[in-house]
Amino acid sequence: MLKEVLIVEGKSDTVAVKRAVDADCITTGGFHFTRRTLQNIAAAYKQRGIIILTDPDTAGENIRKFLTQRFPNAKHAYIPRDEATANDDIGVEQASPEAIRKALSKVRTLEINPREEFTTAEMVALKLSGGADSSKLRDKIGAALGIGYGNVKTFVRRLNSYGVTREEFETAIKNLE
To answer: What CATH class has 1-110?
Structure first.
């Protein structure tokens, strides 16, 4: 059983997670948090720690940001969009048990004082911004590093905030080739 409690969006996400791992889950019910849900998340955060595992879409990112502001030491797991898409729908519930386990094996924690190791200019030079395939490349590297998908600004922020090392980054790029 996972020590931390997983925070997911809905009941179907909980079912998908339980097919993959033995873990306790708290569902947010989307972005409409009840006071009780926030109290349950706060209790789990204090007692066991939490891992935020939201859908790789805009709503999921908004929920993640909301929770991160309230629970800054929460851990984060990301399922790549292509591994969380089925039947024209995207979400944790669409992911295979293997995709969920893989995401949980790459859990990251935000650093209180993000570094300034990576820059947008560097992403342009590496063709991770401004090119025809830049979005796809960032998506693949984000999946390899466990930081999820994002536009170039979000991608650079995550590289710096999740403590990705230069070596990890360069290895992820080399593995694309």
So the answer is: alpha beta
